[in-house]
Write a structure and sequence with these properties.
By secondary structure, the protein is α+β, with helices and mostly antiparallel strands. Helices cover 31% and strands 14% of the residues. Helix 1 packs antiparallel against helix 2. It binds zinc ion (2 copies). The site of one zinc ion has 8 residues, from helix 3.
Length: 118
């Protein structure tokens, strides 16, 4: 009998702070690539790397983000990696010129402490 491969029941979110430095570096690089991607194809490819590295499924939005609380000076340190299409995601800063990625808070942070004071 052939060995069947089933889609694993993967999580939809991950925690950046729980990942190894090596994995974090892969995600950082992939997000940088997504930020600078010129085409949707390149963008989705980069997001695919983020999902694979984080061990989560690439959502149907093909768009993932790390919670901006991770790098905001007054953020709570949350490192959630989440589908940007989720309800409750808060944009804390729009993307820089010629860049694709806005800074986003995960729904939990957007609910608990929206928009860190700039
Ligand atoms: Zn968060
Ligand atoms: Zn937070």
């Amino acid at each position: 009998m052939a060995l069947m491969t089933h889609a694993r029941n993967q999580a939809h979110t991950a925690d950046y702070t729980q990942l190894s430095p090596t994995v974090q570096a892969v995600i950082d690089k992939a997000l940088t690539d997504a930020d600078a991607a010129d085409t949707g194809k390149d963008y989705v490819k980069a997001m695919g790397y983020v999902a694979t590295a984080a061990g989560i499924q690439l959502p149907t939005s093909k768009d993932l983000a790390v919670c901006s609380c991770l790098n905001d000076a007054d953020g709570c340190g949350c490192g959630a990696i989440f589908d940007t299409a989720l309800t409750g995601v808060v944009v804390t800063a729009t993307s820089d010129p010629d860049c694709n990625l806005s800074r986003l808070q995960c729904p939990t942070c957007g609910h608990d402490h929206p928009r860190p004071a700039a």
